[in-house]
Design goal:
Helices cover 49% and strands 14% of the residues. It is built from 17 helices and 12 strands.
């Protein structure tokens, strides 16, 4: 069960890793194009369920409820060997509760960030997940202290993000000289993020272009976002934007990225690309979030590092002038930019090596085999 684009990516790689160990495994659930390509029968597309913010979820309640009831019915009638839930905590914890009722074991992969907000969910995770595979180095100790069966598998992005891409080759394929700065725009993988953040990003880059002749702008298209949505946003601007399918090529080519807070910040960090992180939700969501979120940063980059490595702009700070100001500081070659790149390199080292998908697949296969042994004869 993957309710968002990043979960779809990690879910697809996990499916392939499980199939390497247990080739005849059958998969069904919620996901996107990547999981479908990996061989998962998609019952509901994750793009129908993906939301950002606390108040925004109300617009998707009908489809979320329909998905839950359908999957609950399947858990009861098919009694699968394993339920794997990936992040997306409110829905997945509810479904995990149903799975436990029907004696289906539950593996939670990429657990909720309960260390940041709503720590009371730890008890639900302990009660409803048989095992938890965590991806951040400090999470294992956090869960173990609270009695959760947890294993640190490393970050799955380390299996995915390429070590090195040739920037010159990418620029050549795009017909870019690289004489001016290249800025990547990563406005998020949800409709609400794109409509709130992309116009501000574009306006900021337009302001930067006045001082940077030859500036080019790249935008990778997230699999959960339609080209029509992007076109509807960028049509009101004169800035030429090249839309690309491959985000890692965009990251490799970029001198700087403007990025929505989320998984993409870590992908940029692993490739050591300087960034400005932006975050904006509805005023009510932000107000409610301030009451429950107890961390000093919003971006995963700064949270994992435990210090401010990259600039963060939140809510009212997300304006074209402020984004352009922070971006200009980074574009100026100097010790500040060099320090950011070096600290991003140290962050990458802290995320572990490659093999998160393989380690999690071994846990999944072990759990399925245990269920198969205990399954009563029919």
């Amino acid at each position: 069960m993957a309710g968002e684009a990043s979960g779809d990516l990690h879910g697809a790689n996990l499916v392939r890793a499980i199939r390497d160990l247990a080739p005849h495994t059958l998969f069904f659930g919620i996901g996107g194009r990547r999981m479908e390509d990996a061989g998962v029968t998609i019952l509901f597309p994750s793009s129908d369920l993906a939301v950002v913010g606390l108040t925004e979820v109300f617009s998707r309640l009908r489809v979320i409820r329909k998905a839950y009831l359908k999957l609950k019915s399947i858990l009861r009638s098919e009694n699968p060997d394993l339920l794997i839930v990936i992040d997306y905590p409110d829905f997945n914890l509810l479904l995990a509760g149903a799975a436990k009722k029907f004696h289906v074991p539950v593996l939670y992969y990429i657990s909720p960030q309960v260390w940041a907000w709503r720590p009371g969910r730890v008890k639900k995770i302990a009660d409803r997940a048989d095992r938890v595979a965590v991806i951040l180095p400090f999470e294992q100790q956090f869960y173990r202290r609270r009695g959760v069966a947890v294993e640190y598998v490393g970050h799955p992005l380390m299996d995915i993000v390429p070590d090195r891409l040739c920037r010159e080759e990418i620029l050549g394929s795009l017909g870019l000289s690289g004489k001016g700065p290249i800025i990547g725009l990563l406005p998020g993988s949800r409709r609400e993020e794109v409509t709130r953040l992309l116009p501000v990003m574009i306006s900021a880059v337009e302001a930067l272009s006045d001082n940077h002749p030859g500036l080019a702008c790249l935008l990778p298209l997230a699999p959960t976002i339609t080209p029509e949505l992007i076109d509807s946003v960028i049509s009101g601007f004169s800035l030429p934007i090249r839309i690309q399918d491959d985000m890692y090529s965009v990251l490799a080519a970029s001198d700087l990225v403007l990025v929505a807070s989320g998984t993409a910040t870590l992908e940029a960090a692993i490739m050591q690309v300087p960034m400005v992180v932006v975050y904006r939700v509805s005023p009510l969501t932000f107000w409610l979030g301030k009451l429950v979120v107890k961390v000093p940063f919003i971006s995963l980059v700064n949270l994992i590092a435990g210090e401010r490595i990259v600039p963060e702009l939140i809510q009212g700070e997300v304006t074209p002038s402020r984004v352009a100001e922070e971006a200009e500081t980074i574009l100026e070659s100097g010790p500040g930019r060099e320090s950011m790149v070096n600290r991003l390199g140290k962050l990458k080292e802290s995320l572990g090596g490659r093999s998160a998908s393989e380690k999690t697949a071994r846990i999944a296969v072990e759990m399925m085999r245990a269920k198969s042994v205990s399954r009563p004869l029919r």
